[in-house]
Amino acid sequence: MVWGGRRPPAPNRSLPRFAMLSDWSVARAAAIACAVIALFLAAWAISDVLLLAFAAILVAIGLHGLAGAVTRYTGCPPRAALAVVCLLVAGLLGVVAYLFGNIISAQVRELFHRLPAAWETFQDEFHLRGMVDDLMRRAEAAATPSGATVLSAVRGVTSNIANVLVGIFLIVVGGLYFAMQPHFYRRLLISLFPPQHQDAAGRRVDGIGQSLRCFLQAQLIAMIVVGLLCGIGLAVLGVPAALALGLFAGLAEFVPMVGPVMAAIPALLLALTVGMETTFYTLLLFLVVQQVESNIISPLLQQELVSLPAAVTLFSVVAFGTLLGPLGLLLATPLTVLVFALCRPDDNCAI
């Protein structure tokens, strides 16, 4: 068929690709976008549950790593090795609580007993007493809490304590469940991917598990070393509650950058009750310990186990703490390790 002796015009091949999409393709793309957004919003709504699950996975990785070591050295089955590890960990915690519980609790009570006096000494040393008292009077005049406000605050504190206890229970029990059947949960996760990508997904999951295992090993060593150095140093300096402060410093080391600062504050306040010279040496002790941890311990551990850039670690702590609250702050470093493991280039991995 011709038009006026000429051939009909050919289809315009220069149209954009999206102009030639069918209505079905557009609807399918819109449905996928809506599903992705819905999944993101659902994950954000249950972010606390997901963080608890991630913490339970960390516990499971630690238990499974210890059970693997027991299996290698004794040859017992994995389930029996896990049971042995759980009994050893529970027994170790029981022995520590029995032998040092009274000492630690007494020093913690002394810590809280001395902190108000330390704060008073701090105000006197830096001539802040009048300023602080004036600010407190203005704050009380601006907002005197009513009975309902006090009752609401008490309920809030009680609810927070209950949430912490429930969270610890879920983390411990969930970690045991994950550690008992790691291969089942691995297969379940990999099955979510298309068949052509499941091998790559398996390699990626194994790489993430190895990265988190190395992180836990490095973090445990750093926490033990920092806690021992701080506790021994504070005891030599004569700072009250040195054992409790060393324990707190070791635990606070799990949160990089922020944890050491938080651990130094009560130690400096208690050192003020002894004298300014002790306070100066206490500050020097924490600076030296952090320099040893940053320049000797961490480089050695990073060379052998896991490596994270310092700037990335710092901003990840701030970012996760801002977005996800206290639990995000506590898990900021392992979450950063997870993100690095997910984004690590792998020529053999398609995801």
TrEMBL record:
<feature type="transmembrane region" description="Helical">
    <location>
        <begin position="310"/>
        <end position="332"/>
    </location>
</feature>
<feature type="transmembrane region" description="Helical">
    <location>
        <begin position="161"/>
        <end position="180"/>
    </location>
</feature>
<dbReference type="Pfam" id="PF01594">
    <property type="entry name" value="AI-2E_transport"/>
</dbReference>
<keyword id="KW-0472">Membrane</keyword>
<protein>
    <submittedName>
        <fullName>Putative permease</fullName>
    </submittedName>
</protein>
<comment type="similarity">
    <text>Belongs to the autoinducer-2 exporter (AI-2E) (TC 2.A.86) family.</text>
</comment>
<feature type="transmembrane region" description="Helical">
    <location>
        <begin position="50"/>
        <end position="70"/>
    </location>
</feature>
<feature type="transmembrane region" description="Helical">
    <location>
        <begin position="261"/>
        <end position="289"/>
    </location>
</feature>
<dbReference type="InterPro" id="IPR002549">
    <property type="entry name" value="AI-2E-like"/>
</dbReference>
<feature type="transmembrane region" description="Helical">
    <location>
        <begin position="21"/>
        <end position="44"/>
    </location>
</feature>
<dbReference type="GO" id="GO:0055085">
    <property type="term" value="P:transmembrane transport"/>
</dbReference>
<feature type="transmembrane region" description="Helical">
    <location>
        <begin position="82"/>
        <end position="104"/>
    </location>
</feature>
<feature type="transmembrane region" description="Helical">
    <location>
        <begin position="220"/>
        <end position="249"/>
    </location>
</feature>
<dbReference type="GO" id="GO:0016020">
    <property type="term" value="C:membrane"/>
</dbReference>
<keyword id="KW-1133">Transmembrane helix</keyword>
<keyword id="KW-0812">Transmembrane</keyword>
